[in-house]
Predict the structure of Ribosome-binding factor A.
Amino acid sequence: MARATPDAQGRSVRLLRIGEQVRHALAEVIGRGDLRDEMIARSLVSVSEVRMSPDLRHATVFIKALANNDDQAIVKALAGHAKFLRGEVARRLATKYTPDLRFRVDESFEASARIEAVLKRPAIARDLIPPEPKPAPLADEHDDAD
C-alpha cells in the first residue's frame, strides 16, 4: 500500500483532510448552538484547527473564544461536552473510528498579534518599506537617427 504524501510538518494529506472534516463538523455543531451551555452560548467560539493522531483515534481541537477573553473556561466547557460532540462528529464522518476530542486554546492569534506589533515598530517598519525605483535613463534622440 502506498503511503500518503506528507506536508511540510510531516503530516499526511489524509490526516489533514480528516482533521478538516472534524473541524467543519465541530464548527457546525457549536455554531448552531446545539450545546446547552450558557458559557458557550454567550461566546463566539472559533474552531481554528484540528490535529489528528496518526491512528485517527485522537483529535486535538484548537479553539479561540472571540467574544470572551476567558479561553480556559470555554475549553473546560467544551471538554465537559466532549462525549456529545464526539457523537455529533461520528454522525457527520464516515470513518472507522471516531476520535476522542481534546480541546486546547489556540495561541496562534496572540503570536500573530505580537509579530504584527514588532513589524509596526518605527525602526522595523522603516526597513520594510521597499526602496523607490530609480528612474530609467532617457534615451538620447540623436542615437536613434544613425
